[in-house]
Design goal:
The structure holds 2 protein chains of 2 kinds.
Chain A lengths: L2 H11 L4 E5 L5 H6 L6 E4 L3 H15 L3 E5 L3 H5 L1 H9 L4 E7 L15 H4 L6 E4 L6 H13 L5 E7 H5 L24 H13 L3 E5 L1 H5 L3 H11 L3 E3 L14 E4 L6 H9 L2 E5 L11 H5 L3 E6 L13 E4 L2 H9 L8 H14 L12 H11 L5 E4 L3 H9 L6 E3 L10 H11 L5 E6 H7 L2 H7 L5 E6 L4 H10 L15 H7 L3 E5 L5 H9 L5 E6 L7
Parallel strand pairs in A: 1-2, 1-3, 3-4, 4-6, 5-6, 7-8, 7-10, 8-9, 10-11, 11-12, 13-14, 13-15, 15-16, 16-18, 17-18
Helix pairs in contact in A: 1-7, 3-5, 3-18, 11-14, 12-15, 16-17, 16-23
Chain B lengths: L2 E8 L4 H11 L4 E8 L5 E8 L3 H13 L3 E8 L3 E12 L5 H11 L2 E5 L3 E8 L1 H10 L5 E6 L3 E4 L6
Antiparallel strand pairs in B: 1-3, 1-4, 2-3, 5-7, 5-8, 5-9, 6-7
Classes of the chains: A alpha/beta, B alpha+beta.
Chain lengths: 537, 161
């Protein structure tokens, strides 16, 4: 058995079903070994998308997403995908080929110091020097990626190490890492304090972030909110924690969130912030919110607590464990008056749009689309105006909502949707992007066809980089610079070139009919929606 | 006041880079950094002196703890610890100032560890403050080059340890 066989064997033992990647000489031993495995390989069209696809698979299946690329440019291309996963705490194992270890540091063909380059975007990285270390390193990598605060782990394997004979393969059952023991269970003293503060509060609110989804705590959180009648808002990454129509849910917070959600945060006398980093996009002035508020900050990563706002009660642990513990404590709670006020705010403060009837209204379109989607469907929003509209108007039922929230990486939706579909074949998966983000990933249409991954794609077309145009509208009085993306390509012809069914919606008149047609069956469809180029989010 | 981070790390390649990179990425300033093996060969101790407000210091400590190569972080203020720094200083001397230099060294407890017909190499191991005093005293003398180790520190002995 050689090193490359050992890597594949470890992937099998970790129940990996798909590896996304792109070969090159330095990773060829691995791609040769994988031929004799049941693990399926997906040839993406650019390495960045391998990480996005792995991210989509990880998010839909709670497994670790895996990709494997070659050295040099293969490895550097994957960095944006790794950084995107890191910003959203998505568990990935990224395997990169590397030049012969004896040549390391001599700047030979396709050599890049990838472990050095990704240091600030990975949870951990390895440069494998000895093939006999592979089983331990693989075991550690999967463990690190998928526990505590999840995140990407990179393993750089020189080609000679992949080709080296291994004395004896044994996959460790357990690990002992003296430097890595994440706190999962919350401190009971602190948890009782939370219950005590809640019982004294008059206007409490739970603000749920992506960490709730990553720990699988949605149900526990919903039960807890239900039991005590506590209203819930979410960050962008927390969308999906609550069904949109849940009477206790009051929308997304932040500068792109619902005005009534922000008002609720500002008026609350107690905020339970859970699995969210309190960053600028969620809360514009953390200190301002804090002044007269009890802040309880729950996070599995101690470094998040107190980073942007000082909490009254810091609580380190996994959200699911903590909410299960909180459910076991009974305390008096009556927030009916507060909830009634919030309901009035919601009625009065829902933003009123004035859609241009000549075009598709993104808000109306997204609402109808998500209502017509299968209940457990997966909606992947890209980055740009489409993301903000998606966050605001997508209706969560029992499905999932993914987007690149932390890094805001354009082009995320199509590869991530592809990964999500492979991770959950029985689910309907839809990517919604703008014409800018579509063109950043449209090469993956070939992958989708070649590997027969039936994802559905919506392109909101306005011939502008809409989000930046909107910024220039406000900030520079409509002096537009480098935001006109033009009218190419013709998407009907692109669809034809890739042999994909094409639909077009030019205004809302036929929206119902076209959306029904779009959602029909389990096949790839590209739906182009013409939206007002001057629309604002 | 200066804060001292005494960080036990895995003695592996690239760890110094990771820890130093963390400081620069998070915009924390490093005043000095010294690294060496401990009694356990698989463990190195990094002694990092940094300044910043209480919140920054707390963040640094948490971010250090998050690094998988970091085994343990201890932080303490200068006055809670014994700090020493090693200084080497090469100076030009002549007949007229030779005596002065030797006296200054004697007063400050510095040693002359090497010399030629025109150069002296002075060594001093002391607190950063006293090293600064010596440097101030040598202002009028032509200094050829200086090397400082940065602070090494351990917490003062307490009965509870």
């Amino acid at each position: 058995m050689i090193g490359a066989d050992a890597i594949v064997k470890c992937l099998e033992l970790e129940n990996v079903e798909y590896v996304f990647g792109y070969p090159g000489v330095a990773i060829c031993p691995f791609y040769n070994s994988i031929l004799s495995s049941k693990i399926k390989t997906v040839l993406i069209r650019t390495e960045q998308n391998a990480a996005h696809a792995a991210s989509g698979l990880a998010r839909v299946s709670d497994k670790v997403g895996v990709c494997a690329v070659t050295s040099g440019p293969g490895a550097t291309n994957v960095i944006t995908g790794i950084a995107t996963a890191f910003a959203d705490s998505i568990p990935l194992v990224v395997i990169t080929g590397q030049v012969n270890s004896e040549l390391l540091g001599s700047d030979v063909f396709q050599e890049a110091d990838i472990t050095g380059a990704v240091e600030s975007f990975v949870k951990y990285s390895y440069l494998v020097r000895n093939a006999n270390d592979i089983p331990r390193i693989m075991k550690e990598a999967f463990h690190i990626a998928n526990t505590g605060r999840k995140g990407p782990v990179l393993i750089d394997v020189p080609i000679d190490v992949q080709n080296a004979e291994i004395k004896k393969f044994s996959y460790p059952d357990s690990l002992s890492m003296r430097t890595y023991k994440p706190t999962v269970k919350g401190n009971m003293v602190q948890i009782r304090k939370v219950a005590d503060k809640l019982s004294k509060a008059k206007r409490p609110i739970i603000c749920a972030g992506g960490g709730v989804l990553l720990s699988g705590a949605e149900n526990s959180l919903r039960k807890f909110a239900d039991k005590h009648g506590i209203p819930v808002v979410t960050t962008m990454m927390g969308i999906g924690v609550m069904p949109t129509k849940d009477p206790l849910y009051f929308g997304m917070v932040g500068n792109n969130g619902k005005p009534y959600a922000n008002r609720a945060m500002n008026e609350a006398d107690l905020i339970v912030m859970v699995g969210a980093r309190v960053a600028d996009r969620a809360i514009s002035q953390p200190d301002f919110v804090m002044e007269n508020t009890v802040l309880i900050h729950i996070d599995v990563d101690p470094a998040e607590i107190g980073k942007n706002a000082q909490p009254s009660i810091p609580l380190v642990g996994d959200a699911k464990h903590i909410f299960d513990d909180l459910l076991s404590i009974d305390f008096e709670s009556d927030y009916k008056e507060w909830i009634n006020n919030l309901r009035i705010y919601r009625q009065k403060m829902e933003p009123q749009r004035k859609p241009n009837p000549k075009y598709v209204d993104p808000a109306g379109f997204i609402t109808t689309l998500s209502e017509k989607m299968k209940d457990n469907g997966v909606y992947v929003a890209d980055v740009g105006q489409n993301q903000i509209w998606s966050c605001a108007y997508h209706v969560v039922k029992k499905g999932k909502f993914f987007t690149s929230g932390g890094m805001g990486t354009m082009g995320y939706s199509i590869p991530a949707a592809m990964g999500a579909k492979l991770g959950a074949k029985n689910r309907q998966v839809i990517a919604v992007c703008g014409d800018g983000s579509f063109q950043m990933s449209m090469m993956e249409l070939a992958t989708i066809k070649q590997h027969d991954v039936p994802v559905k794609i919506v392109v909101l077309r306005n011939n502008y980089l809409g989000m930046v145009r909107e910024y220039q509208h406000y900030k520079y009085n409509d002096k537009y610079s480098v935001v006109d993306i033009g009218t190419y390509p013709d998407l009907s012809m692109i669809s034809k070139a890739y042999d994909i069914k094409y639909l077009k919606l030019s205004n809302m008149k036929k929206a119902d009919e076209v959306i029904d047609e779009f959602l029909k069956g389990d096949e790839t469809v590209l739906l182009e929606c013409i939206i007002d180029p001057y629309d604002l989010v | 006041m200066k804060k001292i981070y005494s960080v036990l790390v895995e003695n592996r390649t690239g760890v110094l880079c990771k820890v130093a990179g963390l400081f620069s990425r998070r915009n924390f300033n490093i005043d000095s950094l010294a690294v060496g093996e401990t009694d356990d060969k698989s463990v190195s101790r990094m002694t990092i002196v940094s300044s910043g407000d209480a919140r920054t210091i707390e963040q640094v400590e948490k971010q250090l703890n998050k690094k998988l190569d970091v085994i343990k972080v201890k932080t303490f203020y200068e006055d809670e610890s014994i700090c020493r720094e090693l200084l080497f200083m090469k100076v030009k001397y002549n007949k007229t100032n030779r005596r002065d230099i030797m006296e200054n060294c004697e007063i400050m407890g510095a040693k002359i560890v090497d010399m030629s017909t025109s150069l002296m190499l002075i060594q001093m191991c002391d607190t950063p403050e006293r090293i600064q005093i010596l440097l101030d005293m040598f202002k009028s003398i032509s200094i050829v080059e200086i090397a400082r180790t940065g602070c090494l520190a351990l917490q003062k002995c307490t009965e509870t340890e």
